[in-house]
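S2.1 Query sequence (Response regulator transcription factor)
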Amino acid sequence: MAIRVLLVDDQPLLRTGFRMILEAEQDLAVVGEAGDGLQALDQVRALQPDVVLMDIRMPRMDGVEATRQITGPEKDGPAKVLVLTTFDLDEYVVEALRAGASGFLLKDAPAHELVQAIRVVAAGEAMLAPSITRRLLDKYAGHLPSGEEPVPDTLHTLTEREVEVLKLVARGLSNAEIAADLFVSETTVKTHVGHVLTKLGLRDRVQAAVYAYESGLVRPGAQ
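Output structure tokens follow.
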């Protein structure tokens, strides 16, 4: 079945462009459009999309708050949110990731990247490369804890090896790189990442990276 996509942007011309790109793909279907966050919430409830392409800066309700309501505990469906931003390292992107977005993409990204990002997010993965996650968090280190705060109790539920894996995820390593660093198989790394997400109640490795920084486990700029 085709991946159901909802387009959310306050610029109709951009929505039209995205629609043309996506409808050229057999496995993607644009089921609706919205011009602001409030309309997006209504459309999510009515249309039950798989992926929401979410602009950040919009009237009435911005993309961060809309993302929070779409992906929060009271959510009405299984929709994943892929944030669209005009500027690389938009200051709101970190907040959108914290709110539950599965990743972000620049609006001027090539068409094939947009299509691939939707497919990856729909499959339940994070399309945001770990290296970009780290770059974002380093850029906005002033928004994050200093590292002197108490370690969250939830962190103590992880094994020593799971903590190692979480640190490496936050520092931008792929599963293959983590496997090489720890001298284990990629399958073992995937298992550890899965355990980390389950124990910490996180959606994906993007949120895991955010958690690692916010908890003080990894300090911004650390190697």
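The two ends are 43 Å apart (CA to CA). The CA atoms of residues 87 and 106 lie 7 Å apart.
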